[in-house]
Amino acid sequence: MLTCYDYLTAQIFDEAGIEVLLIGDSAGNNVLGHESTLSITVDQLIPLVAAVAAGSRRALVLADLPFGSYQASPSQAVETATRFMKEGGAHAVKMEASAYYAEHVRAVVKAGIPVMAHIGFTPQSEHALGGFRVQGRGDSAAKIKDDAAALVEAGAFSLLLEMTTSSVAAEIEAEFDVPTVGIGAGGATTGQVLVWQDAFGLRKGKKPRFVKEYADLHTVLFEGARAYRSEVLSGVYPAAEHTFES
């Protein structure tokens, strides 16, 4: 599973065999340049979902429900999830949730919309959690397992575990009969997810411990842009083969 936010990238990842393409609220950071995920809206995300759906032929297209679009009530959750399915062409939605939101998940599932429940560290709750902190240590381990149980009982088809201790993730993977997806949760989960700009080196600077860089696209694009500028200034480009004659 990888994040994805546009048509061409969706085509590449789909052809490469990536099973799930997540249009995450992380688009707030990686597409729109926001400081956090909290400010992105449903109306901003839906066109990105539609672009990924258009570029995908076999992958599951998974749309993130952004902050404020489902917390108010189960009916709000159903309304928002329905928009992502009808207007964006998503196959399923992801909700950052705890046991408190089990009824919201249940309502969306009853409406015929598959839900992946996101537990552990939930970025939309970063202020309530005291910042970017690993979850599952000490007393919080029991809460994460309780959240998992409530959300699976509510009908979630999968659990995403973010920044949880590997031991808690392994226990959840073993206990529940749904696939788990980890990000910073160790190797015991059924699958893994990364933000694609992190995984392929488009963004430089400090990265979370769990990120592995599989390519260096930042350098490729930088060098290409610099070469293009140089050739335009020197007159090398466009050459005869790039020119139409009368």
UniProtKB/TrEMBL annotation:
Entries under InterPro entries matching the protein: Pantoate_hydroxy_MeTrfase, Pyrv/PenolPyrv_kinase-like_dom, Pyrv_kinase-like_dom_sf
Pathway: Cofactor biosynthesis; (R)-pantothenate biosynthesis; (R)-pantoate from 3-methyl-2-oxobutanoate: step 1/2
Claim: Metal-binding is one of the keywords in the record: yes
Cofactor annotation: Mg(2+)
Catalytic reaction(s) noted: (6R)-5,10-methylene-5,6,7,8-tetrahydrofolate + 3-methyl-2-oxobutanoate + H2O = 2-dehydropantoate + (6S)-5,6,7,8-tetrahydrofolate
A Gene Ontology molecular function term of the record: magnesium ion binding
Annotated residues for binding of Mg(2+): 25, 64, 96
Assigned keywords, A-Z: Cytoplasm, Magnesium, Metal-binding, Pantothenate biosynthesis, Transferase
Cofactor detail note: Binds 1 Mg(2+) ion per subunit.
Residues annotated as the enzyme's active site: 162
EC assignment: 2.1.2.11
Intracellular or extracellular location(s): Cytoplasm
EC top class, as a word: transferase
Superkingdom field: Bacteria
GO CC aspect terms: cytoplasm
GO biological process terms, semicolon-separated: pantothenate biosynthetic process
Coiled-coil regions, chain positions: none
Function according to Swiss-Prot or TrEMBL: Catalyzes the reversible reaction in which hydroxymethyl group from 5,10-methylenetetrahydrofolate is transferred onto alpha-ketoisovalerate to form ketopantoate.
Subunit field text: Homodecamer; pentamer of dimers.
Similarity section: Belongs to the PanB family.
Protein name: 3-methyl-2-oxobutanoate hydroxymethyltransferase
Lineage of the organism: Bacteria, Bacillati, Actinomycetota, Actinomycetes, Micrococcales
